[in-house]
Write a structure and sequence with these properties.
heterodimer; A: 463 residues; alpha/beta; Amidase signature (AS) enzymes; eleven-stranded mixed beta sheet; two-stranded antiparallel ribbon; 15 helices; B: 66 residues; mainly alpha; 2 helices; elongated
């Protein structure tokens, strides 16, 4: 075991106390990436000189000297993002994105850029200009998208924390597939400036970590304010059985149900069954609002000169977006308003909503289909109804690991009202206590193998 | 190839109208994606949104004020 295998907060505390040499920690991280990335393809760029410069200039902060990675969606001063694609709809430029600044100002060291699904356009992560990131639990499986690299990197033990982005579920899906805790913050609350879709109404930056306390730490950095912990009690948790539980795989449903009951008992709460009859409408509306965000760039000239290295899927999707009726998008915005009012009413009587992050465990990279009680579906088709409405309405949502099914991770998603980010983290920590941290301690096989032979190791621990 | 469905005719007409080129693979992707989302899209177009007043201004970081 290496210091690298400890939590973000323990690494930060170890550096602050002088127990950990941050230079050795960074070397161990880069060595670990070298060892494991061939199997995972989680990291698409490292830049040791820039990382060492960040370390040399790191201010005192909660993450001083702690290595993290950042999704290929955020520009860095020395590297333009590629958005997982051979070409974007705008020219990508290097620069100081707000997530970069937040990490830098907290003293963190960016050790690498993490892979992502091409153009952020899927919940699977199985298509990327770099080749797909792989799931550390089974490298033939999807790591989830679009923050596939952040999920794979943290679950694979390359770093203890990563910054992703969530536009229709893109932090929560990889957290679910890879057994991590991933927070989609309330819209506008986390660092965003510098994203190439400057007017996005759906995308937020968000952390993916090994547990809720690390997520709280990294989210606090991204928020620029401390998300204080409180003891939640008496939580009223809304459970939407149809279709979010009933059309999940039995192993997924059972793991989530067991965890939810444990959470209820831990906080002295109650589970309240409810229906969201317009959820399907909210979901298609989320997709339409998100896809419209760059539609002004979809001109014939642009579409007729797309880079041939863009996948046929991306080219087809872009061209489809160009001819969708504007009526649908206009109606989607009205549905958003209706959905926000409906949610606000629901949250007068509820503290949280709960359902599986994903209806199935991670599908194969080469065949991203899932078998559900209602039949076979594409993973994207099945996943989006679980995640997208939080982006449509702006509310925060978190995925927490709740065990394994078929040897693969299962995530429970908790969603709260606007501004309840800290409450979601409180609930996630309560769930960890209720389950004696059994599920956040689970590690993917690759994260337990080939330990880095670094001197950056806790005393008395091998290698 | 002659289009054999309403969607194919719509795609062919739309692409031709705006001078957008698309090969057969891209058209297949468009058709596949549309077939997945078609029921939801039809539901959206048929939804009763009569009387839904837009939020002015909309602030997605907060609950709606009205």
């Amino acid at each position: 075991m290496s210091w690298l295998d400890l939590s973000l907060r323990k690494q930060g505390a170890g550096v602050a106390s002088g127990e950990i040499d941050p230079g050795e920690l960074l070397d161990a991280c880069l060595e670990r990436i070298e060892e494991r990335n061939g199997e995972l393809n989680a990291i698409v760029a490292t830049f040791p000189e820039e990382s060492k410069r960040m370390l040399a200039e790191a201010p005192a902060g909660p993450l001083r000297g702690v290595p993290v990675v950042i999704k290929d969606e955020w520009p860095l001063p020395w590297r333009a993002e590629r958005f997982g694609a051979a070409q974007g709809l705008v020219e990508f430029r290097s620069g100081e994105s707000a997530p970069y600044r937040a990490l830098r100002d907290a003293g963190a060291v960016i050790a690498g850029v993490a892979n992502m699904h091409e153009l952020g356009a899927s919940s699977t992560g199985n298509v990327s200009v770099y080749g797909p990131a792989r799931n550390p639990w089974d490298s033939s499986r999807c790591a989830g998208g679009s923050s596939s690299g952040p999920g794979s990197a943290v679950a694979g033990g390359l770093v203890a924390g990563a910054v992703g982005a969530d536009g229709l579920g893109s932090v929560r899906y990889p957290a679910g597939y890879c057994g991590l805790t991933g927070l989609k913050p309330t819209y506008g609350r986390s660092a965003f400036e510098g994203h190439h879709i400057a007017n996005s109404e759906t995308i937020v930056s968000g952390p993916l970590c090994l547990d809720a306390a690390d997520c709280r730490l990294l989210a606090s950095v991204l928020f620029g304010e401390e998300l204080r912990a409180h003891e939640p009690s008496g939580l009223r948790i809304g459970v939407v059985r149809e279709p979010l539980w009933s059309n999940s795989q039995p192993g997924v449903e059972a793991a989530c149900d067991s965890a939810l009951r444990a959470l209820r008992d831990e906080v002295g709460g109650e589970l309240l069954e409810l229906e969201l009859p317009e959820l399907a409408l909210w979901t298609i509306s989320a997709v339409l609002v998100a896809q419209a965000e760059q539609s002004h760039l979809l001109t014939p000239a642009t579409l007729n000169s797309l880079d041939p290295e863009l996948s046929p899927i991306a080219r087809g999707l872009l061209k489809l977006r160009a001819i969708l009726p504007a009526t649908a998008t206009a109606r989607a915005r009205l549905v958003r308003t209706k959905a926000r009012r409906e949610l606000a009413r629901r949250f007068e009587e509820l503290d949280l909503l709960a359902w599986p992050t994903l209806p199935a465990v991670a599908p194969p990279l080469d065949r991203p289909l899932v078998e559900l009680p209602a039949g076979t579906a594409t993973a994207d088709q099945a996943n989006v109804i679980h995640g997208a409405f939080a982006n449509l309405t702006g509310v925060p949502s978190i995925s927490v690991p709740v065990g394994l099914s078929e040897g693969l991770p299962v995530g429970l998603q908790l969603t709260g009202p606007w501004g309840s980010d800290a409450l979601l983290l409180d609930a996630a920590e309560a769930l960890e206590r209720a389950t004696e941290r059994e599920f956040v301690r689970l590690r993917a096989p690759v994260a337990l193998s080939n330990p880095a032979t670094s001197s950056a190791s806790p005393p008395g621990m091998p290698g | 190839m002659e289009p054999d469905s309403a969607f194919q005719r719509y795609v062919q007409g739309g692409l031709e109208l705006f001078g957008i080129e698309a090969d057969q693979t891209e058209r297949s992707v468009m058709e596949g994606v549309f077939s997945v989302y078609r029921p939801a899209l039809e539901g959206l177009l048929a939804a009763d949104l009569e009387g839904v007043e837009p939020e002015r201004p909309i602030d997605l970081s907060r609950a709606p004020s009205e």
